[in-house]
Amino acid sequence: MHRSLSQLLGEGRRWFDDGLSAAMEAAGATPVSPAQLQLFSVLDPEGTTVSELARRMGVTRQTAHQAAHGLIAAGLLEQVPDPGSARRRLVRRTAEGERAHRLAASVLTRLEDRLAERIGGEAVAALRGALEAGWGEPPSLG
């Protein structure tokens, strides 16, 4: 069966997400959903608005809001006033959220190392290079 590159990229993303979730659970971290993992990965250190999180995640504002509020309820994020705008609020990591973020970064590095052991360091470097290349806007193929 021929799988599209899109499917393969999705499977690769799930491999990292599943490995990250298992390692975080083993370390006693608060369980989070895949959407919450994604939100955490696109959050700026100083905080980000829910609208900007939704744009970065490619989801609706409501979906980003639900993911953020689940993480707020878990004590990993908090909402604070935006110093640049009296009307906006920023979502940012709490101290516990910072600890979880550092642990996740360490786990992801170990997962990349494991992937390099399995498929080779050159293959991982080539994959990284291809994914970091500027792809531009999606073409209109209509």
From TrEMBL:
<protein>
    <submittedName>
        <fullName>Winged helix-turn-helix transcriptional regulator</fullName>
    </submittedName>
</protein>
<dbReference type="GO" id="GO:0006950">
    <property type="term" value="P:response to stress"/>
</dbReference>
<dbReference type="GO" id="GO:0003700">
    <property type="term" value="F:DNA-binding transcription factor activity"/>
</dbReference>
<dbReference type="InterPro" id="IPR039422">
    <property type="entry name" value="MarR/SlyA-like"/>
</dbReference>
<dbReference type="InterPro" id="IPR036390">
    <property type="entry name" value="WH_DNA-bd_sf"/>
</dbReference>
<dbReference type="InterPro" id="IPR000835">
    <property type="entry name" value="HTH_MarR-typ"/>
</dbReference>
<dbReference type="InterPro" id="IPR036388">
    <property type="entry name" value="WH-like_DNA-bd_sf"/>
</dbReference>
<feature type="domain" description="HTH marR-type">
    <location>
        <begin position="25"/>
        <end position="124"/>
    </location>
</feature>
<dbReference type="Pfam" id="PF12802">
    <property type="entry name" value="MarR_2"/>
</dbReference>
